[in-house]
């Protein structure tokens, strides 16, 4: 079977790229090894949520996915308050201050995945999902790429897109090295019902034991992300539900009153990943295959969606006769994305190191920095504008 493009990885970023290109004239195969699980028809909540920027929401709406999400499962964020680790320093961000409707939307992972795959149903024959299917080998040629699948079939394409996550198989097959360092932290996630209304405010505390965030969900529910040491994460996940609730209440200074657990805690390891090359002849990396950042800024998924948005735009606007795997075309994509990726890598990695340090002098400086930034509206607005993209 011959395709113009094969996307390996049918997660949120890979599937959104396929959906964005469904009217481009390209014949696309989307390879995903895992079968999608139906969303439970009950009142349960996914423990994994994302903060979707307005720019990402607009992109998802353009491809027909955003409108497929159940509105009662979405929560807009109008304000965000970030606290330092001295219980006094803080910085406040407000959508009203910069004249936008919201800073972000909090959405469940499973709702987003389902919506993007639903949007593919209108692609006709232009996108062929192969799910479940697993790649076993890739052969690179000057004019094309051969992709072998576990069922013995062979696909031919002009371009391979690696969207297969932080431990990307495609990246390894292409011989692209990734600089990795583990943060030796676990992101512990869980959902709670709160006593007090969150008023659509997202809260974050930089603490000596990690970074705690409480993100608004519909009604009085909140989603917790506590990025902490492996030992502390194991302790948190081993606590009885009532005791974990009391621990989170205390760590969040009882801001939302008493908490009641509605989703059991889960954890995922946190790593920094930097990739020197985003493209090679007939190959491009997007999403977590191209970068891995700390979740403290809530920008990881938005960074990946910006990859998909830029690549879809560039391929859609190419000359009709131009090979979509043309290396010069792919280099344009790489140059367009590198600044955004590098900036977030430096900011998130730097903040993680700054607040994960017990030096008392650094503690005073970082908390002073929060206070100073909070009093400089131009700087605050610049930070917010970048996060809205």
Model description:
There is one protein chain. Helices cover 33% and strands 31% of the residues. It has ten helices and 19 strands. The strands form three sheets. Strands 1, 2, 8, 9, 10, 11, 17 and 18 form an eight-stranded mixed β-sheet that branches. The protein has an eight-stranded mixed β-sheet with strand order 6-5-13-14-15-12-16-19, sandwiched between helices. The longest helix is centred in the C-terminal third of the chain and has 29 residues, at 327-355. The model has no long low-confidence stretch (mean pLDDT 93).
Named at the architecture level, the CATH assignment is: 3-Layer(bba) Sandwich
Can you count the beta strands? 19
Q: What is the overall pLDDT average?
A: 93
What amount of the residues lies in strands? 25-35%
SSE-based structural type = alpha+beta
CATH hierarchy class name: Alpha Beta
Whole-number count of domains: 1
Give the H and E element order.
EHEEHEEEEHEEEEHEEEEHHEEEEHHHH
So what's the oligomer here?
single chain
Layout of helices and strands:
Elements: E1 2-8, H1 12-20, E2 28-31, E3 49-52, H2 54-62, E4 75-77, E5 79-83, E6 90-94, E7 104-108, H3 109-119, E8 127-130, E9 135-140, E10 145-149, E11 154-162, H4 169-173, E12 178-194, E13 201-207, E14 210-216, E15 221-229, H5 230-238, H6 241-251, E16 259-275, E17 279-280, E18 283-285, E19 291-292, H7 300-316, H8 327-355, H9 360-374, H10 377-388
Parallel strand pairs: 1-2, 1-11, 2-8, 5-13, 11-18
Antiparallel strand pairs: 3-7, 4-7, 5-6, 9-10, 10-11, 12-15, 12-16, 13-14, 14-15, 16-19, 17-18
């Amino acid at each position: 079977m011959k395709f113009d493009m094969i996307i390996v990885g049918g997660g949120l970023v890979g599937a959104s790229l396929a959906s964005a290109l469904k009217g481009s004239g390209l014949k696309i195969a989307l390879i995903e090894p895992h079968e999608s699980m139906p969303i439970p028809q009950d009142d349960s909540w996914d423990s994994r949520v994302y903060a979707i920027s307005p720019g990402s929401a607009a992109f998802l709406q353009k491809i027909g996915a955003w409108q497929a999400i159940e509105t009662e499962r979405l929560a807009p964020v109008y304000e965000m308050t970030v606290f330092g680790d001295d219980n006094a320093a803080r910085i406040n961000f407000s959508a009203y201050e910069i004249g936008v409707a919201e800073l972000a939307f909090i959405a469940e992972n499973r709702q987003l995945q389902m919506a993007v795959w639903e949007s593919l149903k209108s692609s006709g024959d232009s996108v062929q999902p192969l799910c479940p299917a697993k790649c076993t080998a890739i052969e690179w040629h000057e004019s094309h790429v051969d992709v072998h699948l576990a069922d013995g079939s062979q696909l031919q394409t002009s371009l391979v897109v690696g969207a297969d996550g932080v431990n990307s198989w495609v990246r390894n097959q292409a011989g692209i090295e990734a600089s990795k360092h583990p943060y030796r932290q676990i992101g512990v996630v869980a959902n709670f019902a709160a006593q007090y209304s969150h008023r659509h405010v997202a809260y974050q505390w930089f603490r000596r034991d990690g970074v705690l965030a409480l993100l608004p969900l519909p009604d009085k529910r909140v989603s917790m992300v506590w990025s902490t040491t492996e030992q502390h994460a194991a302790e948190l996940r081993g606590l009885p539900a009532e005791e974990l609730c009391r621990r989170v209440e205390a760590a969040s200074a009882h801001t939302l009153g008493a908490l009641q657990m509605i989703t059991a805690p889960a954890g995922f390891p946190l790593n920094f990943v930097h990739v020197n090359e985003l493209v090679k002849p007939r190959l491009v990396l997007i999403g977590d295959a191209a970068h891995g950042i700390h979740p403290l800024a809530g920008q990881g998924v938005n960074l990946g969606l910006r990859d998909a948005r830029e690549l879809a735009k560039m391929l859609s606007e190419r000359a009709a006769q131009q090979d979509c795997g043309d290396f010069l075309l792919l280099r344009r994509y790489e140059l367009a994305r590198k600044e955004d990726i590098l900036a977030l890598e430096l900011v998130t990695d730097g903040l993680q190191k700054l607040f994960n340090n017990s030096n008392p002098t650094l503690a005073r400086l970082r908390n002073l920095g929060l206070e100073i930034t909070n009093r400089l509206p131009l700087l605050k607005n610049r930070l917010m504008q970048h996060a809205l993209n």
